[in-house]
Design brief:
Blueprint: H1 3-15, H2 18-25, H3 29-43, E1 48-51, E2 54-57, H4 59-85, E3 92-98, H5 99-102, H6 105-116, E4 121-127, H7 130-138, E5 144-148, E6 157-168, E7 195-199, E8 204-205, E9 208-209, H8 210-217, E10 223-228, H9 231-242, E11 245-248, E12 261-275, H10 282-293
Parallel strand pairs: 3-4, 3-5, 7-10
Antiparallel strand pairs: 1-2, 5-12, 6-11, 6-12, 8-9
Helix pairs in contact: 1-2, 1-3, 1-4, 6-10
């Protein structure tokens, strides 16, 4: 099998349809289908199930995908590294992260990267959990990943800052009197009888969702009032009066009035980390400088 065939297969999986994959690869659908069929003959069975509106991996395809992705991503990364060593400008940059950081700390970093390096085409991959981010990064999905502290990542990593967690309260809540940098922090024990706005993208720590874990350590089980999918939605719903929620301070500008943001005591901060599979070059190295300076 050829690397091109594997790249075609990976692109079809990424784009979810043959039509979009063909457009992305700048080939005809018939040529793409021919290459996929040739690959399937070589591996000995179907890798993709053709559906009326897209494709789905077969069991053989699911088994084949991780190594195919790794081969394709490694080849792309090698090409970018060679171009960087040759002094070639422009190029592409693949960045992976979790959704909360994509709409938070990375927004300014991406904008600054575009201002400093307008010839670089940047693609951002967003994942729900840290586990998924790490697993996909290990398979070579991106040149650089941005997540939280890693103690056992086999490649290079860099601390680039911290994420502060704050409490969003309704506009008429008595806790508003404690908002602001000079306000008294709220201890979790004070919130045992409150209704919480929970987020589907809430991080998991050692098999527990973050809020369940920290509230359990404070001696109570949080009572869920509303469930949403995205942290930005959770912040807005809580700010409108539906409950309280914990959210990254990076997400709060333009989402929540400052008078409804209360610090938690003792302060909750998480280390932000950038990590790669190998030493970064070219656009990846430039983006790391942007992250570290920011």
């Amino acid at each position: 099998m050829s690397l091109r065939q594997m790249e075609y297969f990976v692109t079809v999986v990424e784009e979810a349809t043959f039509t979009r994959a063909a457009e992305s690869l700048h080939v005809t659908q018939s040529a793409l289908s021919h290459q996929i069929k040739a690959l399937e003959r070589e591996v000995g069975g179907p890798l993709l199930e053709r559906l009326p509106r897209g494709v789905r991996l077969t069991p053989m395809g699911r088994a084949f995908l991780p190594d195919a992705e790794l081969a394709v991503r490694s080849a792309r990364q090698a090409r970018r590294a060679a171009r960087a060593a040759a002094g070639a400008g422009g190029g592409e940059l693949e960045v992976a992260t979790v959704h909360g950081l994509a709409v938070g700390v990375l927004t300014e970093a991406v904008a600054r990267m575009r201002r400093l390096h307008p010839a670089v085409e940047l693609r951002l991959h967003e994942y729900v959990t840290e586990e998924e981010l790490r697993e996909r990064m290990a398979r070579g999905i991106a040149d650089v990943a941005v997540g939280f502290r890693l103690d056992d990542w086999p490649g290079p990593s860099w601390q680039i800052g911290e994420e502060k967690v704050v409490l969003v309260v309704p506009p008429d809540d008595p806790l508003c009197a404690r908002a602001g940098a000079d306000g008294d922090p709220v201890k979790l024990e004070e919130l045992a009888d409150r209704g919480w706005v929970r987020c589907g993208m809430e991080p998991w720590i050692e098999g527990q969702q973050f809020l369940d874990r920290v509230c359990g350590q404070a001696g109570f089980i949080p009572r869920t009032a509303v469930r949403v999918e995205h942290p930005t939605t959770a912040a807005r719903v809580a700010a409108a009066g539906a409950g309280i929620c914990l959210v990254s301070a990076h997400l709060t500008p333009h989402l929540v009035p400052a008078g409804q943001l209360v610090n938690v005591g003792p302060p909750w901060r998480r280390t932000l980390t950038a990590f790669c599979r190998s030493q970064p070059t070219g656009a990846a190295e430039a983006f790391l400088r942007v992250l570290r300076e920011g």
